[in-house]
Amino acid sequence: MSSIRNIVILTGAGVSAESGIDTFRDANDGRGGLWEQHRVEDVATPEAFARDPDLVLRFYDMRREAIQTKAPNAAHRALAKLDAEWEGELLIVTQNVDDLHERAGAKRVLHMHGEHLNAWCTACDARPRWTGPLIDRPACPECGKAALRPDIVWFGEMPYRMEEIFAALEQADLFVSIGTSGAVYPAAGFVRNARELGIETLELNLEPSQGTAWFDEARHGPATELVPAWVE
Ligand code: BJW
């Protein structure tokens, strides 16, 4: 890493898998999806929320509660250590909606798909911290209207802070993708953006991702082993 000064790290569900949080598309777990008989594409859309809000709110209330019982693992801790010690620019762009990077101590974290511990008021656009159930239709602490939904980027919605992400990529010398299947865009396209910019690229994933051929180097195995070894 001697010639590397600025790093963008993309993380996905695989980085939190060993903390006990289910991934979205693990074909080997016999379920091939996240929640009972529902595919993630069927509950994580604005159309699903409009059609059956109770189903969608129950789904997110259950996951918000579950995430609060989980703890960061060795991969989160290694990235937090890198963040604390790295003197150049560094940005952890996570697709994850859990807060395990932050609880491990990482500071330079950007949640492009939202955060479980926030709600979003569709009436006044506030994003209050929210750890309780949304199924009871609580009032927004800012405007008082019962218009809170999960602050999660659903399919067809624009991921957050894309300009910041592309600006960081433009400055980066290294792009590292950790624990993501490369199935969901625009994050799945970052490796190609990085290649076009002439940035070095590295994949750390349990198995080859859908985009693995685009990386200069790919290492396969559990994140709790690969990430600390890479950071050292
Ligand atoms: C381990 C491990 C261990 C396991 N160690 N590794 C056709 C072509 C191209 C694009 C599209 C298309 N049709 C539609 C689109 C766009 C769409 C999309 O990409 N769809 C695909 C399904 C094709 N994307 C969008 O809609 C996005 N918005 C958008 O494009 O905006 C522009 C736009 C705006 C308006 C109109 C039109 C366009 C938004 C995407 C939002 C994604 N949201 C979710 C929300 C979930 C809700 C929730 O959290 O409940 O984000 S979906 C879900 O997937 C979640 C994740 O962040 C995301 C990525 O998943 P991730 O993290 O990669 O997890 P997995 O499970 O897929 O992979 C885990 C990996 O870890 C695996 O490889 C394992 O092997 C590995 N692993 N254990 C290391 N221990």
Q: How would you describe this structure to a colleague?
A:
Helix content is 31%, strand content 18%. The protein is of the alpha/beta class. The protein folds into two domains: 137 residues, 3-Layer(aba) Sandwich (Rossmann fold); 77 residues, 2-Layer Sandwich (SIR2/SIRT2 'Small Domain'). The strands form two sheets. It has a six-stranded parallel β-sheet with strand order 3-2-1-6-7-8, with helices on both faces. A two-stranded antiparallel ribbon has the order 4-5. Helix 5 runs parallel beside helix 9. The longest helix is centred in the first third of the chain and has 15 residues. The protein is globular. The termini are close together. 39% of the residues are buried. About 3% of the residues have low confidence. The structure holds ligand BJW.
Please describe the structure with a list of short key phrases separated by commas or semicolons.
6-stranded parallel β-sheet, Rossmann fold, SIR2/SIRT2 'Small Domain', single chain, 232 residues, 18% strand, two-stranded antiparallel sheet, 9 helices, 31% helix, binds ligand BJW, alpha/beta
Give the DSSP E fraction (strand runs of 2 or more residues).
15-25%
Number of contiguous helices: 9
Low-confidence stretches: 27-32
What is the mean pLDDT? Answer: 93
Q: What is the number of beta strands?
A: 8
